[in-house]
Write a structure and sequence with these properties.
mainly alpha; Arc Repressor Mutant, subunit A; 5 strands; 17 helices; 57% helix
């Protein structure tokens, strides 16, 4: 890490660290971000306009969700879109089509397992949020263990990291330079102080600061500090971006957490990392908050468009069903299920709509004959089905 870039930072301080590697003992500095307070950063007028745009877009998304009979129906697909992009930002790439259609219960290579674990983490976190469960080191540690289960990271550490880590590599670093000197950023050292600061941050993010700080700005502050602390050995970006949505939901900015923030940031990853680093090196909050707010606004607009498109597809499929001989209540429930799940088995559908397997199997065949459903892939057993119009809508994400 180029220590001189951080020497006069108004956002934190440098602390001396040391250790021993295969090449011998070393000493360097790590960056320790200042704790957050009830005072927000001073921002440019352009940054404030970006925040206002984000608030308007998030309000429009929330209003759309409120008008739909069951907005939660679209959450499952949104989480898969987020899972694919948030993993890609951390260097684990799986094609969107595969992520949308994979069965989490199947055996998977570590890469796909890493992506699909996010679904379990997010669904659990949203359920805990609905129950009013507070955020704590043990709560977040439990989510982190879910995230790395069955991956290479599971063999290392879960929860707050007990080792020093580094983030990125400087472009001007020499090939033979020690890893910690060549790093782009060195987060705080491990130990009780890191755990205490992380616990304080969770309390700050959970608390209501609306009297003094706009919730979008507060979410930007929370995310920066989370990433600057880098509390985990692995998975900091995925957990940190999940908490953007949780924080907005916690403070009433969005009531249905179906927004996907990572696809927008993934296509601008270098700008994203540079904006975060700029807060640490020069205290440039305006650039970071502007980008963060822009990302929220664009993500909210995309989520609203997707929600409306899926709702229209749902209505169109039910209209086609109504004009057929297969228009039972169970058939309508099956359409709803197919709109909310990119692919599914007959057994999964039977459990969801409360029908016996044989009856569901006949119903699926009838909807296939109507062109509402189609078999996905070719399997001799445990066949999967999907509504082609739904998958087409979701795959548009990859072309944005």
């Amino acid at each position: 890490m180029d220590v001189e870039l951080f020497r006069n930072s108004p956002s934190g301080e440098l602390v001396r660290i040391s250790g021993t590697s295969a090449s011998g003992p070393w000493t360097h500095h790590a960056f320790l971000p200042h704790p957050l307070t009830e005072v927000g950063p001073t921002l440019t007028s352009a940054a404030y306009r970006s925040v206002a745009d984000a608030r308007a877009a998030l309000a429009a998304l929330d209003a759309t969700a409120a008008r739909l009979p069951n907005p939660r129906l679209f959450r499952h697909s949104s989480l898969r879109l987020e899972a694919q992009s948030t993993a890609a930002l951390e260097g684990t790439y799986e094609p969107l089509a595969r992520v949308l259609t994979e069965d989490p219960g199947d055996g998977h290579d570590p890469s796909m397992r890493e992506v699909l674990n996010y679904l379990t983490v997010a669904e659990t976190a949203f359920e805990w949020a609905a129950q009013g469960r507070a955020w704590s080191l043990s709560t977040i540690g439990e989510l982190h263990r879910m995230l790395i289960k069955g991956t290479a990271g599971e063999r290392d550490y879960s929860g707050v990291r007990p080792i020093q880590v580094v983030v990125g590599r400087r472009e001007d670093a020499r090939p033979d330079e020690h890893l910690i000197h060549a790093a782009r950023y060195v987060p705080p050292p491990p130990g009780d102080d890191l755990a205490a600061r992380f616990s304080d941050l969770l309390d700050w993010m959970y608390a209501d600061h609306r009297a003094s700080i706009d919730p979008v700005v507060a979410a930007a502050m929370g995310h920066y500090t989370f990433e600057a602390l880098h509390p985990f050995h692995d998975g900091n970006g995925r957990i940190g971006r999940l908490f953007i949505v949780l924080q907005l939901n916690r403070h009433g900015i969005i009531t249905e957490p179906s927004i996907t923030v990572s696809p927008w940031f993934e296509t601008r990853r270098q700008r994203y990392y540079d904006a975060l680093l700029g807060v640490s090196t020069t205290g440039d909050w305006s650039t970071w908050v502007s980008m963060f707010a822009e990302g929220l606004a664009r993500s909210a607009i995309t989520a609203q468009d997707r929600m409306l498109a899926l709702a229209q597809a749902q209505a169109d499929l039910k209209d086609r069903l109504q004009r057929s001989r297969t228009r039972s209540a169970s058939a309508r429930l099956l359409v709803d299920y197919a709109v909310g799940r990119p692919t599914f088995t007959v057994r999964e559908a039977a459990e969801a709509i409360g029908l016996q397997y044989q009856g569901t199997n006949k119903l699926v065949d009838a909807l296939v004959e109507l062109g509402i459903l189609a078999e996905y892939g070719v399997r001799s057993y445990n066949r999967r089905f999907h509504a082609p119009v739904v998958l087409d809508i979701l795959l548009r994400e990859s072309s944005r």
